[in-house]
Each structure stands twice: as structure tokens, then as C-alpha cells.
Amino acid sequence: MLKFLGMPIQASAHAAEIDQMTVLVHWLMAVLFVGWGVFFLFVIFRFRKGANPRASYTGAKGKISKGIEVAIAVIEGILLVFYAIPAWATRVTRFPSESEAVVVRVVGEQFAWNIHYPGPDGRFGRTDIRKVTADNPLGLDRTDPNAKDDVTTINQLYLPENRPVLVHLSSKDVIHSFGLIEMRVKQDAIPGMTMPVWFVPTRRGEYDLACSQLCGLGHFRMHGFVTVQTDAEFRKWLDDQEKELRAAN
Fold it and tell me: What is the CATH number of domain 102-248?
């Protein structure tokens, strides 16, 4: 059914849950659209001028309309209580521990995504706004011992399959929005705040990393890529990046 409705592929552990809720909401909207359309045509015919030469301002009364209103409210309540709230609660209260997750910083700016991995020591190096340059957009201080093994990329987010990913999301300038359609992830990146986001990629491949918030004239080109690999491939990629760092230093 999801494929018939044109939904994107599901590439995260929680995608099916989000899709189920989305499909149910759209079915409700479809029923309401058809129902109100039929009612509109009925009203046009029933209260036409030929059948009602004198206008009545008392309004229509009846138990059916009230019953329909109550039924719609109950259905919306069910969707909210049994689908939306549990899905939201899971995303904001059950964060994986940093020891079991791949932890990565993602910093948005006009018009790129800056990616920062902590390296083998598991610690992010110090950043300093005074060190921000075109070649060092995060202002990473390589003199800090914790920063010597840190890996940075631009618009390239590499992740392992079937492992929790914990993203610390922030912005250098204006509000951006971290959008991974296939992962069913969307979170605003707000200047001055760090927003945690987590998910579990379940499908290898390359996916788009989009900015879902109009952020300036170059918004259309704020486009990155997410590459989901096996755990072994991801570790090899990290090792290769660290070897390049050591060779450069």
C-alpha cells in the first residue's frame, strides 16, 4: 500500500511507524474530502432556489451532523494518542547511549552541511570561531589533543547500517532544517542551540541530505549526501580518513 501511495523507500528503523501514521491520516483526509464534497453537492441541490423560494436563516439542525463531528474528533484523538504521541515520545526520551551509537556533529551554514566525527578517542576536539576559515569551516583547533584524530567532511555524511546514530545538530548562521526523507528524519538546526537527533539506518545506499527550511538565496544548492555502509566499510572509511590526517601532519 505504501508503494502504491508513492511513499519513499524506508531506510530507518522507525520509518514504517511514521509511514503507518501518515497513511492513516491521509485516509482520514480522503474520507473527509469525499464526504464534504458529496455533502456540498447535496446542499446545492437540496437548498436550490427553486425548492426554497424564501431564505431561512435558522440553519440546519440534526443528530447526524453532530454525530459525524464527534466521530471525527474521536478518530483524530485516537491518531494523536495511539500513534503521534508515542512516536514523538520515542524520539525524544529514548536516546541511545553514546557508547553504543555513532556520534556525529552536523553544523549547517549558508549553504553547506559541515560534518564532524570525534575519531578513535571518542572525543570531539575544541572549536574556536577565530579559527574559522574556508578550509576549516568548523574552526577546529588541531592543537587540542582531542582534535588531532577528528574527521571532518563537507556535505558527506557516512553512517554504518543497523547501528544507532546520534546527531548533534547546530547552525552557524540562520535556521536550517536537517532533512533525510528516506530516514523519515527532519529537525531544525537553530543558531545558538544544539539539537539532538537519533535514528537507526537499516538500508545501505546513498541518500540525499536536504535543507528543508528556506535559508537564503542559495537554499536550492544546500545539498549533501548520506552514504550508509556496512559496519566494516564504515570503520575502514574512518581508518582511511585518519591515515590521511596523519600523513598530512
Answer: 2.60.40.420
